[in-house]
TrEMBL record:
Catalyzes two steps in the biosynthesis of coenzyme A. In the first step cysteine is conjugated to 4'-phosphopantothenate to form 4-phosphopantothenoylcysteine, in the latter compound is decarboxylated to form 4'-phosphopantotheine. Catalyzes two sequential steps in the biosynthesis of coenzyme A. In the first step cysteine is conjugated to 4'-phosphopantothenate to form 4-phosphopantothenoylcysteine. In the second step the latter compound is decarboxylated to form 4'-phosphopantotheine. Pfam families: DFP (PF04127), Flavoprotein (PF02441). Its EC number is 4.1.1.36, 6.3.2.5. It comes from Streptomyces lydicus. The gene is coaBC. CTP binds at residues 286, 296, 314-317, 334, 348, 352. In the N-terminal section; belongs to the HFCD (homo-oligomeric flavin containing Cys decarboxylase) superfamily. The lineage of its organism: Bacteria, Bacillati, Actinomycetota, Actinomycetes, Kitasatosporales. It catalyses: (R)-4'-phosphopantothenate + L-cysteine + CTP = N-[(R)-4-phosphopantothenoyl]-L-cysteine + CMP + diphosphate + H(+); N-[(R)-4-phosphopantothenoyl]-L-cysteine + H(+) = (R)-4'-phosphopantetheine + CO2. This is Coenzyme A biosynthesis bifunctional protein CoaBC. GO terms for cellular component: phosphopantothenoylcysteine decarboxylase complex. GO terms for molecular function: FMN binding; metal ion binding; phosphopantothenate--cysteine ligase activity; phosphopantothenoylcysteine decarboxylase activity.
Length: 412
């Protein structure tokens, strides 16, 4: 093995025996094509869905369920010890139960007991199995021990059934793995938001003028989605309230779509009731039309259109900050400015009363719609944290870096 191979991140992909095992092939492909050294460890049941030859061919490594093969290499110990990340996808109810109770009756469960790296479980099962108190207790146990158990998706299950329990999109699971590995490279292995509930808003609201037109803005939702995804990678239970985006749901995140500012307010206040932190990254319209035309507003030849009267929308950030739903709740706002950026940001921080305010300059090719961002995070204690231009993931992680100690101080 040459130096370059040794430097490749080592990922163990555990596959348990559910119909979603075939979807793990796409996750495996993305991991290997992005330069990871992947060892697939399936359960015996998983091989009923996808054969050993497929896993070996796609990974370039042997795939076995047995602790008795290559015994001289002590695989039941060495595989877990050498891993930078273990991801079990899909994780059945049976696998979650075995992991929570420390059972070790095959190679995958032995690997989980010997792993000293981050561990991700991507559950997939029928809704009744996921909601069963035994499964929920097992999930809570694993999360308490530091494992990242992501929430399953909602959608079509086996047969005609629909509900929560669907295997998350493999692309989004891959993105979650990438984020967790990136944190490990920076020395941050522990999920520092484990046990925390957070609410993130994203996208832009739209205020209808008539059945065809609306007042809106250019927000893509990318920064809010990055905040939600990085929070999930750090162990949080995340509710993402999304206004008018076209982005895929991040793995392990509960997504609530909304349209208008008033709909967003209703959803945020409800979700914030049991949240440890609320991050208002959405671009919320300050105004809405005073009247809604039930029919399309027609163009009349020879006449200018009537002026559109506007009224103020509720100030959700100020409301959240003034009336915290929980003691110690941390509230973060965003300020998109076009001029006098820091001066306007400081004034807004004082006016809104939030704990942190992420201030960034917007305009053509700046922030909106871009994959990159830069900002200054202003704090109510007077501190200022500049975040240089870079991926929105990096800004999201820096925001959570500032939230985590504030949560710790308030819960001490």
């Amino acid at each position: 093995m040459d130096k370059r191979e040794r430097e490749r991140p080592r990922v163990v992909l555990g596959v348990s025996g559910g119909i979603a095992a075939y979807k793990a092939c796409e996750l495996l492909r993305r991991l290997t094509e992005s330069g990871h050294d992947v060892r697939v460890v399936p359960t015996a049941s998983a091989l009923h869905f996808v054969g050993e030859a497929t896993w070996s061919a796609l990974s370039g490594n042997p795939a076995t369920t047995e602790v008795w093969e290559s015994v001289h290499e002590v695989p039941h110990v060495r595989i877990g010890q050498a891993a930078d990340l273990v991801v079990v996808a899909p994780a059945t109810a049976d696998m979650l139960a075995k992991a929570a109770h420390g059972l070790a009756d095959d190679l995958l469960t032995n690997t989980l007991l010997t792993a000293r790296c981050p561990v991700i479980f991507a559950p997939a099962m029928h809704t009744e199995m996921w909601e069963n108190p035994a499964t929920q207790e097992n999930v809570a146990t694993l999360r308490r021990r530091g494992a990242l158990v992501i929430e399953p998706a909602v959608g079509r299950l086996t047969g005609v059934d629909t509900g929560k329990g669907r295997f998350p999109d493999p692309v989004e699971i891959f993105e979650l793995c990438r984020r967790v590995l990136a944190r490990g490279e920076r020395g941050a292995v522990e999920p520092d938001l484990a046990g925390r509930r957070v609410v993130v808003t994203a996208g832009g609201t739209r205020e209808p003028l008539d059945p065809v037109r609306y007042l809106g803005n250019r927000s893509s939702g990318k920064q809010g989605y990055a905040l939600a995804a990085t929070a999930a990678a750090r162990g949080a239970q995340v509710t993402l309230i999304a206004g008018n985006t076209e982005l895929p749901d991040p793995a392990g995140v509960d997504v609530l779509p909304v349209g208008t500012a008033r709909q967003l307010r209703e959803a945020v206040l409800k979700a914030a009731a049991d949240a440890d932190a609320v991050v208002m990254a959405a671009a919320v319209a300050d105004f809405r039309p005073a009247a809604y035309a039930t029919g399309k507003i027609k163009k009349v030849e020879g006449r200018e259109p009537e002026p559109i009267a506007l009224v103020r929308n509720p100030d959700i950030l100020a409301e959240l900050s003034a009336d915290r739903a929980r003691a110690g709740q941390v509230v973060v706002g965003f300020a998109a400015e076009t001029d006098d950026v820091l001066a306007n940001g400081r004034a807004k921080l004082a006016r809104k009363g939030c704990d942190l305010l992420v201030v960034n300059e917007v305009g053509e090719d700046k922030a909106f719609g871009s994959a990159e961002n830069e900002a200054v995070v202003l704090a109510s204690d007077g501190s200022e944290t500049p975040v240089p231009y870079g991926p929105k993931d990096a800004l999201a992680d820096r925001v959570w870096d500032l939230v985590v100690p504030r949560l710790a101080e308030r819960s001490a």
